[in-house]
Amino acid sequence: MSAPLGRIGIWRLAPQLDAEFAAEAERLGYGTIWVGGSPPADPEIVERLLDATRGITVATGIVNIWNSPAQAVAESFHRVDAKHPGRFVLGVGAGHREANTDYRKPYQALVDHLDVLDAAEVPQSQRVLAALGPKVLRLARDRAAGAHPYLTTPDHTRAAREVLGDALLAPEQKVVVDTDVERARATGRAMVTRYLNLVNYVRNLQRHGFSPDELTPPGSDRVVDALALHGTAEQIAEGVDAHLRADADHVSVQVLGDDPLAGYRALAEALELR
């Protein structure tokens, strides 16, 4: 990986990001801003965030191959990288069967997309794949710098490391900085539940210890608590560190709740980012 991600990053949807937020994230010591959701082939927000900062990495998490032609993705990558050399990481993935009407042979479609990126000389060292299962994890190992798994646990991180070998492993982790258990759990459940109707996430969570009953929406407390950590900043920092102890290289933290920036500030202190 030619772009340094740092130990901890921030994961936010594109509409939740702006230049001021990016500058504060960099000041707090976060290493990477992940532009979440499905940013377009030409993600202008990436360039704006890079313009507003000095050294932090900006990554897409993820560009959806069904919505973004590979040649257009490659052209925008080169434009941004020329302006901010080495600071942009291109994350791509096949999205979800439920959200894409043209979802046929997603693995081959992802391979074809990578073939175009190769032909356009998008460096493998500056791209990652959204990967959960072993087959796509192996593709991330062989055709990209590594993997950016979403909605996972340290158990998945440990298993993914066995597949990836020395390749990059950068999971996402949701958190709620709130010591009121019921309120925090409700906040986490509101986010987690929306993913429990997506078959790729459900299958992956079943592979790593959750039963079908637990994963039936709105999800058991155990599922919600694992996927959206809650408590004090110090307690959450311990949960984030669990991914690093499971051999993640980097963890992208998605703070949920009404005041995410306050959460990121508290976590930066608890994680000793500066």
From TrEMBL:
Q: Which GO terms describe its cellular component?
A: cytosol
Fetch the Pfam families from UniProt.
Answer: Bac_luciferase
Which residue numbers delimit the Luciferase-like domain? Answer: 20-242
Gene Ontology molecular functions: oxidoreductase activity, acting on paired donors, with incorporation or reduction of molecular oxygen
Please, which domain of life does this record's source organism belong to? Bacteria
Identify the SUPFAM superfamilies for this entry. Bacterial luciferase-like
InterPro entries (alphabetical): Bact_Lucif_Oxidored, Lucif-like_OxRdatse_MSMEG_4141, Luciferase-like_dom, Luciferase-like_sf
Q: What is this protein called?
A: Putative F420-dependent oxidoreductase
